[in-house]
Write a structure and sequence with these properties.
Blueprint lengths: L5 E3 L6 E3 L15 E2 L6 E2 L29 H26 L21 E2 L2 E2 L11 H17 L3 H16 L6 H13 L3 H14 L4 H14 L2 H21 L2 H5 L1 H20 L1
Antiparallel strand pairs: 1-2, 3-4, 5-6
Helix pairs in contact: 1-3, 1-5, 2-3, 2-4, 3-4, 4-5, 4-6, 5-6, 6-7, 7-9
Length: about 280
Amino acid sequence: MTGSSTISCSACGAVAPATAKFCGSCGASLGPRRCAHCDAELSSRARFCHRCGRPLAPGLAPSARTGAQPVRSEQTAWIVAASVVAVLIGLIVWWVGRGTPAPATPDMANPGAAGAAPFAGGSPARAAPDISQMPPRERFDRLFNRVMAAADRGDSTTVTSFTPMALGAYAQLDTIDVDARYHAALLMLGVGGVPAALELADSIEAAQPGHLFGYLIRGTAADLAHDDSMRRQAYGDFLQHYQAEERANRPEYREHEPAIDEFRKEAEMAVKRPREQ
């Protein structure tokens, strides 16, 4: 029986300390929930708001009501989180239709432990840290890295299982910088969420006009959408701003230097190709 010093997670049933804010098993919020759009009070298991009908991302922190309209970054975060739920529902329907079982509920292991064997040399592998106790940005970065590592090795089950958790962590960030928006867009593109990723590209352009990440997002989205016009526009805008942005020496560019260099080469080849024809 759950004592007064513990509470049960409404999402997975795991027992957690009464002072915990997030479930250590599934990452769901343990506090009261409110709709981010209309501020209606929600039950712990609600998937849609009973007042406005908006979809709710699982395990999100309560919405803080200040009397003012939410800022654009908060709106974008919720749009992204809601969009990925819709995408994943479509994927699950497809899996069921083709007779393939849906992915198993993941544990909360960190990216480094994602591929670790249960036993190494006859000893149990080191237990993964409890990400629910991490600061919001570290939790988001851990989940993002896990999804990206899974994508690199072709593990689509882990990608579709952990992407909602990563986007839920993104929606809980107190401050959302350009690098976080870029990471969230990559997560969305990984599950086919082109419209939500383009919304994030718009938000990057609004926050820092000329920032290269917006063009990287649009170029990748164009590939997924098979939109040649969007791809050409992304290449042209990227090359137009590339030199000035390189001189700005932004730290996030150094972190993503391989992706930027690869996109630059693709853009230069695309510009050069028509001249040779």
